[in-house]
Each structure stands twice: as structure tokens, then as C-alpha cells.
Amino acid sequence: MSFLTAEHVGHHYFSPSSVTTALKDVSFSVEEGEFISLIGPSGCGKTTLLSIMAGLLTPTDGQVKIDGQPPDLQKNLIGYMLQQDYLFPWKTIEENILIGLKLNRSLTPESKEKALSFLEQIGLKGVETQFPRQLSGGMRQRAALARTMAVDPKLLLLDEPFSALDYQTKLKLENLVFEILKSYQKTAVLVTHDIGEAISMSDRILLFAAKPGRVHKVFTIPDELRHLTPLKVRSQDAYYDLFSTIWKELETLEEEQ
């Protein structure tokens, strides 16, 4: 059985005068330890689908299951990382990182030590007593990653977590997140508008069409790229070939809207 499954998922948004179909008949599966990316034109329902996976929305049709159960019963297995870091500005970095453990009632001397050692691992040693305003954007996103990983989630949902960063910082964080997820064998779903990011980080890419949102095509990343770091992937000929193929498909979808 696959770790994450979406079976004929559909979702509608209702207003007093209209119904908008955000998703229609979306089905796919993700194996444990796999990294997939969702890309597509604006309005194709990527973030809606991520919210359904997180248990924040209940689909109108179909179902999502994580390890055989609905997301709302598996929230302790899910970590969510967003474009904004959402660190509490009045709390220190250490307090921010430990907040998930406190909410889950799983804060122990051992879990605290593990969380703080992870902080050191991602290059934030010595910032524990600082406040978010004292850190750069890239450092804040690393702290947000540490907070997400502190609760030891099995599934990470990443909603454009690097899009607000400068290009160099973005590439460094892509490498960091890729290496962390591979070393901890985490399953991940990334929503992004960046084709290069999707290719360099993923095992598979799901390209969505819009109006309504649906899976248009699935791209499997070649083996020669999958085991390289994102920065190295971007220098390979196979990367440029796949980028061009996906770009053309995406352009066609956008012209059809």
C-alpha cells in the first residue's frame, strides 16, 4: 500500500451565486520516502490539494489517505512549511522550534536535545536565544524547517517555501532541504511555480491543468538526476531537456485557459 494516496479527489468552492470547481477527479499515489512536486498554471488547485492533504480542508469528492487513514487522523505525522516562516516574533528561536513539541505534549529532555542538535546541523548554532527579527530571511526559513522537523513528521508539505528568498539563498536552501529529507527518508510534496526547482528536488512531477484542476501529465525524473543535489542537477544536459519539455507543456496549458 502506498504511503499517500489521493483517490478521485474533487473540491468545489461555493458562493451565493456560483460554484467554482477547484479540483476534479485527481488520483495519484506517493511511496514512502518519495519526493513529488505539483506544478501548473495559476488557479489549478495545487494549494487547495495541499490543504486537503494537511487535513485543513475536506474534499467535496473522493478521499486522501496518509498511511491508510484520513489526514485529520494523522496530523501528528504531517509537517507543513509555507512561503512565510510564521515564527512568533516575541519568542526566541529555541522557543519557536520547541512549540510543536509542546503542543503535541511530546517535549522531553531527549526531544529537546534532538531538536536543538538539528538546529546546529542546519547551520544555526548559537541563535537559540535570538529573536526572529535578528535573523536574515534564509536563516528564518531554516529555523522554520527546524521547527517542522522537530516533531519528526513522516510527511512534509511544502508550499513554495523558498519563493520569497533571493536566488542564491534559495539554491542553498533547496540543497539543504533535499539532503535533510533524503537522509531522514521523509516523504514530501512540494507546490511550486518554479520548474527548475521541481526538477532538481523531485522524484516525480505532477503537472496540473486548470479550470478545473486535474492531473494533466506525470514526469518521472531520470535516474541520472535523482541522486544528485539540486545545485548539481541544474548543470546537467538532462535537466535542460526536461525543463524544455515541461515548459512547452505548461505554455500549451496556459494558452488553453
UniProtKB/TrEMBL annotation:
Pfam families in the record: ABC_tran
Keywords attached to this entry: ATP-binding, Nucleotide-binding, Transport
PROSITE patterns linked: ABC_TRANSPORTER_1, ABC_TRANSPORTER_2
GO-annotated molecular function: ATP binding
InterPro entries: AAA+_ATPase, ABC_transporter-like_ATP-bd, ABC_transporter-like_CS, ABC_transporter_ATP-bind, P-loop_NTPase
Domain ABC transporter intervals: 4-235
Keyword tRNA-binding among UniProt keywords: no
PANTHER family reported in the protein's UniProt record: ABC TRANSPORTER ATP-BINDING PROTEIN, TAURINE IMPORT ATP-BINDING PROTEIN-RELATED
Name of this protein: ABC transporter ATP-binding protein
